[in-house]
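Students often ask why inverse folding is considered easier than folding. One informal answer: many sequences map to the same fold, so there is more than one right answer. In these notes we will look at a single instance of the problem. The structure comes first.
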């Protein structure tokens, strides 16, 4: 397999199509500039601890697998885009992932793009709330949840949102993974931030998005 066209590039990542079997994309992290002091230290760290160079990819693969296993035997579908290992690219090691988007090809709309096109009808709001409930029920860790990391795609003929970036606990001591109250606190804050960006209201009690603070879904 090898990478094809660049599908999306934004702060922190680039996404390429993949030429090969399966409907996959390659997500390649784009690292920000490193301070001079760290540039002298990091090569030594990466030499003796090679996994640190790709810790973001390793974190996302391991967390996606954990969440997928938790979803088996439950009523909740995993809200994370499925990972399929890694591959070399011209920009470095990339994460092979399920392509999230329309059947015709390309990438789906991010949540803010979806809202901007006035596509959040009753069915879409239900799908968004099914997604949010699965995030809490399956113990998903998303330290900085935002509209750009949530993308709409087709799954068994159903249009629903997936988290495609930023999942997994980035800390060495994985407090979010071990302490449910801390994980839920961060998830609620992330959902409130997302709700504010897209003009909805987040109910902590119901764990769902509402049209307004009076509890109206439509």
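Output (designed amino acids):
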């Amino acid at each position: 397999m090898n990478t094809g066209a660049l599908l999306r590039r934004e702060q922190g990542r680039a996404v390429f199509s993949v030429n090969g079997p399966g409907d996959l994309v390659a997500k390649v992290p784009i690292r920000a500039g490193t301070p001079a002091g760290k540039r002298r230290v990091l090569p030594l760290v990466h030499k003796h601890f090679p996994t640190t160079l790709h810790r973001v990819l390793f974190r996302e693969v391991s967390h996606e697998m954990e969440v997928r296993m938790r979803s088996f035997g439950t009523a909740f579908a995993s809200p994370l885009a499925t990972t399929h290992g890694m591959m070399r690219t011209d920009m470095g090691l990339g994460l092979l992932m399920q392509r999230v988007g329309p059947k015709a090809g390309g990438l789906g709309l991010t949540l803010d793009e979806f809202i901007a096109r006035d596509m959040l009808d009753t069915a879409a709001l239900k799908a968004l709330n099914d997604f949010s409930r699965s995030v809490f029920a399956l113990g998903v860790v998303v330290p900085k949840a935002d509209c750009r990391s949530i993308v709409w795609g087709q799954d068994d003929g159903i249009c629903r949102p997936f988290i495609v970036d930023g999942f997994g606990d980035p800390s060495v001591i994985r407090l979010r993974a071990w302490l449910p109250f801390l994980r839920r606190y961060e998830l609620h804050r992330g959902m409130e931030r997302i709700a504010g960006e897209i003009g909805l209201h987040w109910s902590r009690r119901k764990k769902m998005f509402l049209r307004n603070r009076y509890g109206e879904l439509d």
